[in-house]
Structure prediction request, 371 residues.
Amino acid sequence: MYRPTVAQIDLAAIRGNLQAIRRCLASGTEVIGIVKADAYGHGAVRVAEVLEQERIRLLAVATPDEAVELREAGIATEILVLGHAPADFVPYAIRHNVTLTTDGHATAVMYAAAAESGRLRVHYKVDTGMGRAGVLADRAVEQIMESATLANIDIVGLYSHLASAESDPDLTAMQAERFAEVVRDVRAGGLHPAMVHLANSAGIFSVHGSPLDGVRPGILLYGLSPAASLAQACRVQPSLSLLTRLEVVKDLPCGHGIGYGRTFVTDRPTRMGLIPIGYADGYPRSLSNRASVIVHGRLVPVVGRVSMDVAAIDVTDVPAATPGDLVTLIGQQDGLCITAAELAELAGTISYEIITGISKRVPRIYIDRQS
Ligand SMILES: Cc1ncc(COP(=O)(O)O)c(C=O)c1O
Prediction:
């Protein structure tokens, strides 16, 4: 590694977050570990290994290829693919204990045909209000019971996804109610899927009533709150820091432009620090002239446009700043902290997009206080 820009992943924080989530749940409720999108930018294999050590019984990814990556790395825990899977993935899924989502009877028929002589495990997805994938709640029972008669298909799970668990209690309650009705009617029809699940991170705190078999936290596992209002609900800590080092420190006279478009012009003699991170690393261009970074225990501003590979910061007020010094873009340093949520706010997005957007060019390095 010749470039000092890294995402540092604290695996012990992920373990701690899992324990904190488990403490918030009714006893017996399983945590389904969401490791899609490369475990929210943390590295799916390393995170899945940790979750496996912590006895998680089900991992969930978005795509078939994400499941293959985990299996090829030796992850043995059952994996649920939340998104669409094509027919030609079905034989692999059967051979490698990968469970697929069916969004209705037509997909179940397609899977059954592709399963040949094997048996495919599926979770049925019900659309209770999200308006994306899943069989609409009012047609769900009929389709689920029809699919249950298919040879080669085992319906082992039933789930739905919440649209606004962090912000709309009425919609959440309505979705939970619709889902509970489907679950009740399916059970009354004699089908008992072992894993019934609804709540994402926010849903853990906003779905009230009878506990289901499992919850599906993603963002909370990585120590971020799905919404500012829920930040205190569960004691988790961020597991990702984005770090680099000062590459160049240069004196610029007053009135000198910095970066593309000359969007920043110095209004005093300025010590400009150049850091090797840009939008191609996932540090959004929309943070130009907005974000701050931590250098030597001080917050200093990003000045000028964030470009593809580098960004400039103003270190005039940090006389000690020298090339090679640590620069924290996300994370804690010397008692200061910059969160992905704060950057998201400045960039006009959500913390999910900030952490999943850190690109492949940024090496992930792992620390684990337990090892
Ligand atoms: C089906 C499903 N369940 C759970 C999650 C996890 O959501 P969160 O990260 O908000 O906990 C996601 C993420 O988008 C999802 O698509």
Q: What stands out?
A: The chain is about 30% helix and 25% strand. The first strand starts at residue 6 and ends at 10.
